[in-house]
Predict the 3D structure of the following.
Amino acid sequence: MRNEPPTLHFEPADRCLTVDRLSVRYQGKAALRDVSLTVPRHRVTAFIGPSGCGKSTLLRSFNRMNDLIRGVEVTGRIQLFEDDILAPELDVTALRRRVGMVFQQPNPFPMSVFDNVAYGLRLQGLREQRALEGEVEWALRSAALWDEVKDRLDASALTLSGGQQQRLVIARAIAVRPEVLLLDEPASALDPISTLKIEELIGKLAEQYSIVVVTHNMQQAARVSHYTAFLYLGELVEFSGTDDLFTRPQARQTEDYITGRYG
Amino acid sequence: MSRPVGWRSGDGALWLSTGAVALTLLMTLALLGLLAQAGFGHFWPKALATVTFPERQGTPPVLAELREQSAFANAEGELEPRWLLRTGNRDWAAPDFRWVPVQGLGTVHFDPHAVELERRSWGPALGLLAPPGVPQAERQGAAEAALTALEAALRVPPGEREGALTLFAADGQRQALPYRQIVRYWLPNAMGWNAKLGVYFARLGAFLHEPPREANTEGGIFPALFGTVLMVMLMTVIVTPIGVIAAVYLHEYAPQGMLTQTLRVAVNNLAGVPSIVYGVFGLGFFVYGVGHRMDQALFADALPAPTFGTPGLLWASLTLALLTLPVMIVATEEGLSRVPRQLREASLALGATRLETLRKIILPSALPAVLTGVILAVARGAGEVAPLMLVGVVKLAPELPLDGTFPYLHLERQFMHLGFHIYDLAFQSPNVEAARPLVYTSALLLVIMIVLLNLGAVVLRAHLRGRHRDPLG
Amino acid sequence: MHAPLPPNPTRDRRRQRLDRLAAALIPLGGFGVLAAISAIFLYLLWATLPLLQAPEAQGTGARAAPATPALFLALDSRGEHLLRLTQDGQLTLRTLGTGEDVFSVATAGQNAALRYAWQVGETGHLYASVAAPGALRFFALDFPVSMNQGKATQGIRFSYPFGPDPLALPGGLLDDRITSFWEGSRLTLAYIGTDEALHLLALDEVELGLPLLPPRHYRYALEASPRALVRRGQQWLFLDYGTHLEAWFARFADSVERSATLPLPAEAPRALLFGGQTWLIGAAAPELKRVFPVRDATGAFRFAEAAPLPLPEPAAQLEAVPGQRRALVTLASGAVQLLQATSGTALLTLPPPAPTAAKARFASNERGTQLAQQDGDGTLRSWTLKAHHAELAFSRLWQRVWYEGYPAPDFIWQSSGAGSDFEPKFSLTPLLFGTLKAALVAMLFATPLALGSAIYTAYFMTPTLRSWIKPSIELIAALPTVILGFLGALWLAPLVERHLFATLLTLLSLPGIVLVLGRAWGLLPPALRHRVPAGAHALLLLPPLALALYALQSLAPALEELLFGADFRTWLDGRYGISFEQRNALIVGLVLGFAITPTIFSIAEDAIVGVPERLVHGALALGASRWDALRQIVLPAASAGILSALMIGLGRAVGETMIVLMVTGNTPYLSPSLFEGMRTFAANIAIELPEAEVQSTHYRVLLLTALLLFAMTFAANTAAEWVRSRLRRRYGALA
């Protein structure tokens, strides 16, 4: 028998994503088991845990990216505010507009900086050049990239540095004004200076977006997040305020992990 | 790493493998060199020699190009060197090519008044503009007068020309050559480099844009060139979309299981199925099957004369499209698999549908690979002959498949093809020696075309690899 | 701060619909394309299956006919009209479909009693009859089609081409001992005159309705008078004496000479088959003998007896049919079999008719699709036959078959001949042999070249050099094979013919030359040698190699003179009886080998490059030389890939068309000699398929060879792919 994992409670208005008894199985193998938690609105929530603990799977459940994998089985319930994300009839493209995602590897499209940011907007039917320019500038400014690229919006995105590329990808994600931003180890492929910039950006973006960060870097989680969930072997072990989790871990596994016994 | 002096166990094998590479390269170079030398040289004006035969009584001197020397076994089984003389004048002094023993040859001199004439029929005419054996000044005058008259005559359209050029053989015999027969003339022994170059390019140009004459042994190859290009274009129009759709299906939409893997292997292996098998399929299925049904349904009036139930352009293009489909699918799929997964995910995560991701991200990224596939398919299609022999190629097509009469593009017509033209010229020609230079020239043209296409594919592929190596590792 | 874009549900729904449409259509299209490709195999299979079909006969009715027994029955070529000639000379034409008599005419004079009537030639139209006092008449019957306002109507045209009166034969005609042969426009009659000599009458330019040119007449005295004369082909006239058969050979168009004799068992039933060479002869045993004249090595003729055809019971009567190598066999029990005499298949078996005084008569059209029978009691029956490929038994494709005119059973491919009565010979063995011979000789040449190049390029060259050399070699694969073929046939073949010794000398001494050059390299000062980058040796080797080859060519004639007296080819022929064709297996080996070298090279090179470098480094660190590492680590690891390269190369060599078409003499002989040509499946298809009649046996056999080619190459490629995927799995973990 195990204890109910310690978790947090938020006011209904502050509940951005509500996960209820979520289980995910890949071809019969459990990747997540009975996870329940709430991601608060306009805060940064970090998922930590060793490789294969299910943190990325949980993240990818929020925008249904797991659908792309064959043989995936999802049970349980996830709500984005009032809406059931896992409903089969849901338009996933609309969901993914509300839930933006940034990946581990910077993945700009092989097109110009401008076209990268405008990609999602054009998909939504925004065609007018003026409006596009405004939106792109806003997104690039929000991603703290505008000053660096404003003179070469027509250059290929592939000419940017790794850190710039990652901020470009963030700009691309926020250009469509998502409600939630999912960051899957956003800085793991970057050098320390770029990482710092991304972390600053996350802090800034949290004023307007609900952000979920997956990271295996505990210092990063401690630096950028308000709340932290620790997952282990597909289960949610502990979820609490970041300071609490790192200073007063409730569960034995959490303590082992943050003190570096495994990972 | 350095190899020490001396002979160690592996050195022999190593040198043998070195030799293999060297030999392969040597053979390739020799082949290209042979083609280039024989193909480029044909239109160059060659000196015409007046050859005498002092040892053979009663054999008159002849005017000829000394074509090549080769050794033959004579009646006693000994090798004897002989010259191949090109004497032309097939109509009044046949044969136009003859082998003569080198020993029997007497004096050889190059008469400045020797002329070679390209004619509408009977192949080239060789002769002297002035009678031999008369004083030089008199000859000069006669030759100039003949040239002036010839120039004047050539300015008139062929149909309206009157009169004839008097040509002298090396032994003084006269032959009248009607002006209307003459296409072009040159004085190879009295020309400078510039003039020769002029004749060279004029003849090369005519070769490229004129139809063949004299059972394909004279004139140009325009219809064959045109037929090849048209057929390949049609083939490309057919194979590109279906090849891309099949590749997209295999790579993007098909469940990646045993079945898809089997299909992929099957497609791959179809590239190794002999082209003649595709030809058999094309003839049996397209021509006699589909074509015959089409005739019954649409062209019943013309029956029993077949319209589509006979080899033709459409069936040739379809057959070659099928033949090149594996090339196209494999190349496209390779391109698709080089598109990083992260790009797909990024696009989907931004709310794009699968179709939008395909159209805006994946296909543009895979475009160079698709183009590589197209180029490889075109190169294969342009050089393929065996299946075409079954499904639509003819040695001489009276009409081009594209002309000014409705419906302009005549898909049911048979057409000429450069590769088949080479086969036909080399093997079915009534006059093999006369056709040989044209075979080499046509072959060179085809090789240049195909080498350029393949180089294009190589460059494109290198570019493609380079582009995707940088950003995402 | 901008406001977010408003959601646009209409647009979203449209996007979703489009996406779903694509998700439905692309698999459909993609799967369709892939299915279409697989259709090639299915189509070929489907098109060759009829070869296996058992013959099928369907009765099309039995109707009462006039009681007068028919002397002669015939069907027109399409099998629509039945011609009946009764003893009183009345000719009646009946449409089989409706059973109505559509035409009737009296062909002989008053009170004439016909003794004998027959069809002249194999193609219908012309018939002849002999009435009692040796009166010979010809009549013609054909069905001209006339177009009237776009509708075709078939008429009936009856005529006496040589006039209605009996034809006067020089020397007279004894009884009904006459036979005819008609081909093209020449009609040859052979008959026994009233002087009991053999007469030959040749009529030229015989076209229906044209006056005759003066005939040519020949007379041959005979010791005895034969009972019957039979001639159905250009070559042979047979005289049947009852006790023996005499074969007279037509050396020239219309003169004959006695050539061979065959004793006959007493009263044995016998018939001369279509083609005019093979006799079927009944025996006491339940079988039919097959005999035909053959020419032996001395040029003399004799009768040869091929394997007999088994029957369920002994034959009582035999009757040959026009246009097909078939015979109607009346068995001892009275049952009748229609027998395909080439394969021995019974196409149709009829139960014994009711015993009546008059003999049953049969007719078959020349295409062999219709059969009609009139019983002694006057009942007419007819059958439709579906036996298009009955002449071909499947096993005959691979076995030795004893064809008529041949001294012994043999593997022969000869699909068409001069006359319409030619017996097609479909043995696939010589073609398979030729295919494998060409491919193996090519492999013999290509394997060392391609593998050597692959090892060197992959293992010893710097990447930069490799990136240049590899595409250069691969470029050969892109060269149209028609160009390689034409260079091989018109440039290389005459060259090798003239310098055969030099060529062989070069091929054999090449490895030696390379080794000597390599040794010479080792003697150069090390400082010089070390300046050459890894793998550039091959390029350095080019000029000396070319020079050495040139020197060898110059030396060869002197050496040839020294070793063989004069000409190597003359010597070969004189010493070993090896003949030399200009376009032979050696040339095919060189050209085809050259063509498949890049294919093998490319795949083998990939396999060698794919062996992880760490393995090599590991071996080198243990003190192995580069060569040891290659031999002990790299080559075993790449062996599966190399094997698959060889298989794919073999597949290409098997299926290559243009090169073999142009470079071999395309002679379908089973000759293992390197200096003789061959015919391969692919070249055979290219040569014969355009000429083959659609859906004929020949056409389907050619399609069968295409199917075989498909299966052979597909199997080779699949095996190669399988081997390669195993390799990938084994070394995938290492890479």
User: Anything to note?
Assistant: The radius of gyration of chain C is 36 Å.
